[in-house]
What we know:
Helix content is about 25%, strand content about 10%. It has six helices and five strands; from the N terminus they run αααβββαββαα. The protein has helices at about 45, 60-65, 70, 110-130, 170-175, 185-195; strands spanning about 75, 80-85, 95-100, 135-140, 155-160. A hairpin with a 3-residue loop joins strand 1 and strand 2 (about 80-85). The termini are far apart.
Amino acid sequence: xxxxxxxxxxxxxxxxxxxxxxxxxxxxxxxxxxxxxxxxxxxxxxxxxxxxxxxxxxxxxxxxxxxxxxxxxxxxxxxxxxxxxxxxxxxxxxxxxxxxxxxxxxxxxxxxxxxxxxxxxxxxxxxxxxxxxxxxxxxxxxxxxxxxxxxxxxxxxxxxxxxxxxxxxxxxxxxxxxxxxxxxxxxxxxxxxxxxxxxxxxxxxxxxxxxxxxxx
Length: 216
């Protein structure tokens, strides 16, 4: 009978009282709230093991050094490692220190690579203090998929500049970061300020090792 409800409160047609008030144009029921949602179903392939698809020949951190500095957003090339801007920065000037070799774990780098990664990290901090007036930093390596590494197959260290108040309501409430400069502008500023040997162009030139083994 019309108007009767079942034990669970639903009408005879399966609807619940009040459904029509929150039903959208697609005839789907839901309760609106204050949150915006960025649907990223493509990430599921990554979560289910997509990282294992990255090999030396197509790893973005192996491929990057084979391109120009501008194309790859490389700030500086060393002998065993290089400095590159993060394509998805937590803060403006978020850098990654990457060995050229395609190795996944911090225990895989040799002494020379370890020393240069440390030296590049220190220089990155000095340059960010000079160029961006950073007042603090987060440094770290996410090791392994379970450790949160975006590309676990190729080691990379994060250098994230920090300022007072940069963790405001936007990232906390809206899950949104406001980046005030384009990546190419940040790369140019960082590259120009990076200490260079005499006679070496500050940006746009390939110096040091050309790239990875077969070259994210």
